Known about the structure:
By secondary structure, the chain is mainly beta. It has two helices and 36 strands. It folds into three domains: 1-78 and 454-519, no CATH class; 88-135 and 388-449, Roll (SH3 type barrels), CATH 2.30.30; 139-163 and 176-241 and 255-383, Jelly Rolls (Sandwich), CATH 2.60.120.560. It is 2% helix and 42% strand. The longest helix has 6 residues, at 243-248. The chain starts with 27 loop residues before the first strand and ends in a 14-residue tail after the last strand.
Amino acid sequence: MIKNPVIPWLLTFVGLSAAPAVSPAITDLLRFANGDQLHGKFMGINDDLLAVWSREDLSAPSEFKTSQIRQIVLHGARPLKALGSLSYVRLVNGDRVPGTITGIDDETVTVDTSYAGVLRIPRKHAAMLAPGPLGGRVAYHGPFIEDEWKMIHPSFPDGLPPAPAAGAENNEPDDQPGRWTFSGSAWYWQSKRPCTALIRESGMPDRSVLRFELAWKNQLSLAIAFHADFQKVKPKEDENRGEEEKKDNPPKAKAPIRRFMPGDSSGLPAVFGNSNIIQIYSNYMMLIRTHVDKKGQAVAERLQMNNEHMRLGDRNHAKVEIRSTRSTGEISLFIDDEFIAQWEGSKAGDGADTKADAATTGFGFLAQGADSPVRISDIVVSEWNGMPDSARSLQVDEQDIVLMTNGTDRFAGKVDGLDSGGKMRFSGKLGEFQFPLEEVAEVRFARKRLGTAPDAPTDQVTVRLSPLGSVSGRPLAGDATAIGIASPILGNIKVSMEPAVLLEFNSSNTTIDDWDSDF
Length: 519
């Protein structure tokens, strides 16, 4: 039941540029399960487990069943106080619990957090410890705000024109570019029209990790651009024309917008400019280095690879991670934490230099197939410490795997505990070891020692934290500063809203899911 009912206006949420503190003018955003949106202020969850919402134009707060809510975006998806550390524990249910690891024994992993106090996690439910993940600061985590992104096409290099009014899209000419759709905290490509790139024009450090969750239907066909500058390409017919000739003979009308087909790389420089691009298909991949010379002409070099590790044909989702160094051209690709391919720095053909300049800090996505729906979510861009590998690549059933922060040293055996001096006790075939926790990047616990993930409650809420982390469970009462969560693993906890950017309700059974119900 809804008290003080209001008309759920469909409002446009305007993203604001990053700032050290959240402006009081930035409101929260409530997204309903039916697709409607409402700006206002999240006031908490009351004793009846109804979400309380206020607005200046209402005489009293409104209350909504959480089953009616899809998401609540808090203070413009910018935390009141971001977490100070990237250290976290990944649980068997997929939650990432950020905090400082202060204790390990055969039964429990203890984590000290700034948002929920000291948490004691049953060791059988801790799949991975990450004392030193990624290796640097997070530059981007999202998507939570639609307007932080841009859609471009060779015919619209500065961005697509405004979208048609609701219900008018079918009246557009069939040759107009398709559009990505933002819903919840994900981007969807579902159009069958000529393809459009979804981009962020900046944000990648020189040494970067780009990681995201990818889902698809039918045949996967996706181009992923990184360290891109989106430099414009000039039409070849204009290359040798003088200024007077151009004035007397203006360029011809734009050619019809063409469709990018699977395997077609010739049009990629016109979209991404100077860039590295990985094309991923269900059972195949390729690296393409694109370059735009001083005359505005494009070069694209295709680098063949042995694709024996690609096994995506019988799946429909994966976690993709690209580790790259812009200044040297070194690139590594991981899928679901397993090493797939590596490329060394090199020179492209025809005099093109693959070492991008300082402007190449953007990244983006382009679905290339004629019928290749794609969903992209949980995007993280961070600094990279140069680690070439992941402990997951050697995860085994019987032994714990410890990967050190130098990216090369790893040990198999059993993590025995954590002493009072912050050193991890470890038993291996070569003897007993004590590793300073600050020198440990990842610990993957033996598969056979892990417990089964408990079933998620039907009324689950997931609290997403900034810059990295998530905690889920059944919602309990709380106010705008902190809400309660009954976690099937952590127990009943109180979670501060200071580092929170998103409350996601009923993510597995939303009334309208434009990924599952539109096809």
